[in-house]
Amino acid sequence: MIIARSHQELREALHTQSGSVGFVPTMGALHIGHRSLIEAARKENDSVVVSIFVNPTQFLPGEDLSKYPRKEEADFKICELSGVDVLFYPDVQTMYGDDEVRICAPDVRGYILEGASRPGHFDGVLTVVMKLFNMVRPQRVYFGKKDAQQLALITQMVENFFMNIVIVPMETVREKDGLALSSRNVYLNPSERQEALKLSSALKRGTEMVMQGNLSTVEITDAMHKILAPLEVEYVAIVNRRFESISKVKIGDTIVLVAAQVGTTRLIDNVWM
Ligand code: PAF
């Protein structure tokens, strides 16, 4: 595995590879969810590039940028054992200069749900992803469905800017008890971890209601709120794949999302129907 820390090193590393490039952009603290993205990239491409960069522009003031988990040694090992060809590990100076051009998230889709709770977050995500795509020049890029709004906005950016890249959405990986894997789960103490299961339980209840034929988004969100109580819920939302709110679930075009605060940790989860 080649470790590239600068743009020049990345260029040289990419020159040693031939054929299609599958790319997995990450912020590190890699878990089994990331490994499933790397495995899919490994199967479908000649070379696999992973980036690890804790992107400061997607954190709002007061968010967990400085305490975001950093596990360089373990992450490098995971990448090596997973068959990654090139690991891009830039620092902030490599990725950003002064007074730069930025990508702005769309006015509506970028500022509802996650974008309402974290205004400006998606500008930072889209800007760094655009930079990474231009540096790595992949054919396919792998993202988890857990960050559903991020996935939708990146897919939209690729379409809006006519970029020749295939975005591959991958299923959320869960612990046996249903907790969606997230780098932020390390913040949870044992009792908070137990409380965190309310997110997946609420989504499970929503799924059951749909399977029983109840398609009313009002009734489903009400039932989910009852399960989530007394957590500090930021939102329960049911939208179509374009992130427009809907009154009835339409199978094949619906995402049910939840965001809640568990102790000091903000967690998100969703199911795609
Ligand atoms: O999902 C993430 O880990 C980040 O938002 C991403 C896409 C790597 C951009 O920093």
Features:
alpha/beta; 6-stranded parallel β-sheet; 9 strands; binds pantoate; 273 residues
Brief summary of the model shown:
The protein is 38% helix and 19% strand. The protein has 9 helices and 9 strands. The structure holds pantoate.
What would you say this structure looks like, in words?
- The chain has 273 residues and is of the alpha/beta class.
- It folds into 2 domains: 2-170, Rossmann fold; 183-267, Pantoate--beta-alanine Ligase, Chain: A,domain 2 (2-Layer Sandwich).
- It has helices at 7-15, 32-44, 72-81, 92-95, 114-117, 121-136, 148-160, 190-211, 217-228, and strands at residues 2-4, 21-26, 47-52, 86-88, 140-144, 166-170, 232-239, 255-262, 265-272.
- It has a 6-stranded parallel sheet with strand order 1-4-3-2-5-6, sandwiched between helices. It has a 3-stranded antiparallel sheet with strand order 7-8-9, covered by helices on one side.
- The protein is globular and about 55 Å long.
- The chain binds pantoate.
- Pantoate (PAF) is lined by residues 25-27, 55, 58, 125, 128-129, 147, 150.
